[in-house]
Protein backbone atom coordinates (compact mmCIF):
# COMPACT_ATOMS: atom_id res chain seq x y z
CA UNK A 1 0.00 0.00 0.00
CA UNK A 2 1.26 3.47 -0.90
CA UNK A 3 1.31 5.66 2.22
CA UNK A 4 2.65 8.78 0.52
CA UNK A 5 -0.36 10.81 1.69
CA UNK A 6 0.45 10.23 5.34
CA UNK A 7 1.69 13.15 7.40
CA UNK A 8 4.79 11.24 8.49
CA UNK A 9 5.95 11.17 4.85
CA UNK A 10 6.00 14.96 4.55
CA UNK A 11 7.75 17.99 6.00
CA UNK A 12 7.32 21.77 5.92
CA UNK A 13 3.53 21.40 5.73
CA UNK A 14 1.69 24.69 5.15
CA UNK A 15 -1.91 25.63 4.48
CA UNK A 16 -2.46 25.88 0.79
CA UNK A 17 -4.76 27.40 -1.80
CA UNK A 18 -8.33 26.14 -1.20
CA UNK A 19 -9.27 27.29 -4.70
CA UNK A 20 -7.79 24.04 -6.03
CA UNK A 21 -10.07 21.93 -3.84
CA UNK A 22 -13.14 24.01 -4.65
CA UNK A 23 -12.59 23.60 -8.41
CA UNK A 24 -12.21 19.81 -8.35
CA UNK A 25 -15.26 17.94 -9.57
CA UNK A 26 -15.91 14.59 -7.87
CA UNK A 27 -17.78 12.32 -10.31
CA UNK A 28 -19.33 8.87 -10.54
CA UNK A 29 -18.69 6.68 -13.58
CA UNK A 30 -18.48 3.20 -15.08
CA UNK A 31 -15.18 2.03 -16.60
CA UNK A 32 -15.30 1.00 -20.25
CA UNK A 33 -13.33 -2.19 -19.58
CA UNK A 34 -15.17 -3.34 -16.42
CA UNK A 35 -17.06 -6.57 -17.15
CA UNK A 36 -18.91 -6.23 -13.82
CA UNK A 37 -20.15 -2.74 -14.73
CA UNK A 38 -19.36 -1.50 -11.20
CA UNK A 39 -20.15 2.12 -10.33
CA UNK A 40 -17.01 3.99 -9.19
CA UNK A 41 -16.36 7.49 -7.86
CA UNK A 42 -13.35 9.76 -8.22
CA UNK A 43 -11.76 12.42 -10.37
CA UNK A 44 -10.98 12.66 -14.09
CA UNK A 45 -7.21 12.88 -14.57
CA UNK A 46 -7.41 15.39 -17.42
CA UNK A 47 -9.56 17.70 -15.28
CA UNK A 48 -7.13 17.42 -12.37
CA UNK A 49 -4.22 18.38 -14.63
CA UNK A 50 -6.13 21.33 -16.11
CA UNK A 51 -7.16 22.59 -12.67
CA UNK A 52 -3.58 22.20 -11.48
CA UNK A 53 -2.34 24.38 -14.36
CA UNK A 54 -4.87 27.10 -13.56
CA UNK A 55 -4.62 27.18 -9.78
CA UNK A 56 -1.48 25.64 -8.32
CA UNK A 57 1.42 27.92 -7.56
CA UNK A 58 4.99 26.78 -8.25
CA UNK A 59 5.68 26.06 -4.58
CA UNK A 60 2.71 23.68 -4.34
CA UNK A 61 2.86 20.20 -5.82
CA UNK A 62 0.02 17.92 -6.83
CA UNK A 63 1.09 14.33 -7.31
CA UNK A 64 -0.79 12.53 -10.07
CA UNK A 65 0.08 8.89 -10.60
CA UNK A 66 -1.54 7.25 -13.59
CA UNK A 67 -1.10 3.50 -13.53
CA UNK A 68 -0.10 1.79 -16.77
CA UNK A 69 -3.10 0.48 -18.72
CA UNK A 70 -5.46 2.55 -16.56
CA UNK A 71 -8.25 2.39 -19.12
Could you give the order of strands across the largest sheet? 1-2
Gap between N and C termini = 21 Å
Question: Judging from the principal axes of the Cα atoms, what is the shape?
Answer: extended
- Counting helices, strands and paired strands, the structural category is alpha+beta
Quaternary structure state of the chains depicted: single chain
- Strand and helix order: HEEH
What's the mean pLDDT score?
75
Count every helix, treating DSSP H or I runs of 4 or more residues as helices: 2
The major β-sheet equals: 2 strands, antiparallel
Please compute the radius of gyration using only Cα atoms: 15 Å
Helix % is: 10-25%
| Spans where pLDDT lies below 50 across 5 or more residues | none
Number of strands: 2
The portion of residues forming beta strands comes to 5-15%
